[in-house]
Amino acid sequence: MKRTLGYTTNPIRRHSSERDPEALARHRDDPKRLVVLVAGDIPILRAGEPVTALLSPADTDRVANGLEEVFLGHLGDRPVVARLAPSDAADLFREDPAFIVMDLRSAAMNRIAPHDELGILATAKSLLDWHARHRFCSTCGSPTTLSQAGFRRDCASCGAQHFPRTDPVVIMLVSRGERCLLGRQTHFLPGMYSCLAGFLEPGETIEAAVRRETFEEAGVRVGAVRYSASQPWPFPSSLMIGCMGEAESEDVTVDREELEDARWFSREDVRLMLRREHPEGFFVPPSVAIANYLLHEWLDGSE
Amino acid sequence: MKRTLGYTTNPIRRHSSERDPEALARHRDDPKRLVVLVAGDIPILRAGEPVTALLSPADTDRVANGLEEVFLGHLGDRPVVARLAPSDAADLFREDPAFIVMDLRSAAMNRIAPHDELGILATAKSLLDWHARHRFCSTCGSPTTLSQAGFRRDCASCGAQHFPRTDPVVIMLVSRGERCLLGRQTHFLPGMYSCLAGFLEPGETIEAAVRRETFEEAGVRVGAVRYSASQPWPFPSSLMIGCMGEAESEDVTVDREELEDARWFSREDVRLMLRREHPEGFFVPPSVAIANYLLHEWLDGSE
After folding, report:
1. What is the ipTM of this complex?
2. Of A38, B115, B142, B302, which is most buried with the most CB atoms under 10 A?
3. How far is CA B126 from each of CA B41, B119, B167, B254, rounded to the nearest angstrom?
4. Is the distance from CB of B270 to CB of B259 less than 8 angstroms?
């Protein structure tokens, strides 16, 4: 089951001690190097059997000027580097049948990007996006420079060190007996319902965030909370923390600022929604998403 | 057991819908308001039975110029606001016996700050510290201004919205049969050993971070990982994610860049360390810390 959960498998061996000041320059000249190329926020994949996000140096030659680079670690004896290119560099690949130019969310959902490389793509996309949005020091406003092979940015003006950001998000399947609570945001595809979710706030435990978000969005009180699984979600840099919650109340009051609807569904509803056979056209997110995993766990009554 | 874990109890009722543009101004004039005052990074507590971090408006009159304010939520019908004051504002309270001026870590450890308010103090300290370090836009370098009653900062120049940051940290009790793995950092008090821990990196699951950090720091391979509990750790803004890990190897290779030592301890060692009766003077963190909680869980063989 966990096998199909997206962004959780990453075969790269990473070790923070290998992030020395010369690491990027050293690997830049290594003919064995593999490159994960992201143009703006679009990853460039090599077509073929199998499709791969791990490009050879020759594949990336056509991109004259890259922006930041990050050393991700090793695959066997091959160093892997993620490279940010300007958004318009995607055009250099778009009409070449040797490459696939597609946003990561679609490439994962449609199973075009290889499942085993989704964790690599998640790391690359989150880190490169972080660099693109942190070229200035939040403490003093001066320009920052990349250090620690891409895992830090330093401000020469005030001395602040800035580290990549990962935002914890709680996502919870709240249930009461034979029914579970699902909601839909306005921007969802028509008919799609998913688990409630929200950013954990400063000073909250995971369990408190599950209870607060469920009450804020749907007016339902949650008692016991049990952690189930976690998943990186690189849009741009979330850590999804999947939990099962036991509802202590049933009346639903939807916060229309956050959700378009929230309601209770039976086990049979959920079975039909997973198979996209629900008579009212309702369905749930695909297996790449942790909401799907939590729903299967609830139906199975076990992990 | 969880009762003693610090920073996890927060009686404030928070709701993101109450963070309208007028919220701070409205509560600033409310005679019932309660104020959590932080000077630099030092909270100002009111002495008495009980000690409290929830000051009255009269208590804070002596601070002429505050910096940022954040609306935390309600306690009953009383709005609670956190206010950042310059570091030297602590001097206005230091010699007044009606107040206690002490860094939060010490106040929690020595049980001077009230246990039930530690979660409030964690939220206030993390948020105010975030404001102090994010007065400029990391995307373009321009000044930012506070919005959403203190839960966002906006850049008028490039339009970026910045949200408070919470950094997920994995902390794990790794064990193999009757022994568990503890380490010490150079800055620990002499004799103190604790669970291994480290920041989760972009693109990692919680479970992968537990395995990577344990291998990086101690060279020990971890198989099964089980989530146990979480804890806000406001130094400055971590979320501690406590896990139990099963070691698959025993040889310890300490990364001296990260740790001064790491070694295996028996259950009897841990019992004596918890009671501070170990013959070699070893001990573990106090009950306010999640490492202590994980050690108790391991000894009990249950939560």
Report:
1. 0.95
2. A38
3. 9, 11, 11, 32
4. no
State how far the Cα of B246 lies from the Cα of A255, in Å rounded to an integer.
42
Q: What are the Cα distances from residue B290, in Å, to A138, A208, B5, B118? A: 30, 16, 6, 14
**Is the Cβ pair B204, A137 closer than 8 Å?**
no
| Nearest Cα residue to B164 out of B272, B235, B237, B55 | B237
Residues of A in contact with B126 (CB under 8 A): 202-203
A111 close to A45: Cβ distance less than 8 angstroms: no
How far apart, in whole angstroms, are the C-alpha atoms of residue B42 and residue B235? 12
What's the rounded Cα separation, in Å, for the pair B154 and B144?
5
Q: What percent of chain A has pLDDT over 90?
A: 90
Mutation target among B14, B216, B230 for the A interface, most CBs of A within 10 A = B230
- Interface test mutation site (partner A, options B2, B13, B16, max chain A beta carbons within 10 A): B16
Question: What span, in angstroms and rounded, lies between the C-alpha atoms of A159 and B239?
Answer: 25
**B203–A10 CB contact, under 8 Å:** yes
| Cα end-to-end span (Å), chain A | 9
Measured in degrees and rounded to the nearest 5, phi and psi for residue A146 equal -70, 140
Dihedral in degrees, nearest 10, Cα atoms A206, A169, B76, A257: -150
Q: Is the pLDDT of residue B243 over 90?
A: yes
User: So what's the pLDDT on residue B3?
Assistant: 63
Pairwise CA distance, residues A109 & A11, whole Å: 20
How far is it, in rounded angstroms, from Cα A210 to Cα A225?
A: 8
Contact B164, B130 (CB under 8 A): yes
Residues from chain A that touch B255, judged by Cβ atoms under 8 A, are 17
Contacts across the A-B interface (CB distance below 8 Å): 163
Residue A134 CB: number of other CB atoms within 10 A? 20
Partnered with residue A264 across adjacent β-strands are A181
For β-strands B167-176 and B238-247, DSSP reports them as parallel
Tens of pLDDT, residue by residue over A31-56, are: 999 999 999 999 999 999 999 999 99
- Distance between CA B287 and CA B273 in Å, rounded? 12
DSSP helix/strand/coil, B240: strand
For B182-201, write each residue's pLDDT tens digit: 999 999 999 999 999 999 99
Per-residue b/e over A146-164, b at no fewer than 16 CB within 10 Å?
bebbbbebbbeeeebebbb
State pTM to two decimals.
0.96
B-chain residues near A124 (CB < 8 A): 203
Q: Which residues of A touch B10 (CB under 8 A)?
A: 203-204, 208
**At residue A202, what is the residue type?**
P
Name every residue whose Cβ is closer than 8 Å to that of residue A294 and which is 6 or more positions away in sequence. A171, A172, A173, A195, A228, A229, A242, A244
Could you tell me the pLDDT band of residue B73, with boundaries at 50, 70 and 90?
very high
More confident: B241 or A2: B241
Predicted confidence at residue B155, as pLDDT, reads 98
The H-assigned helical ranges of chain B are: 23-28, 57-60, 91-94, 104-109, 118-132, 206-218, 267-274, 290-300
Task: Kindly indicate the confidence band of residue A14, based on its pLDDT and cuts at 50, 70 and 90.
Answer: confident
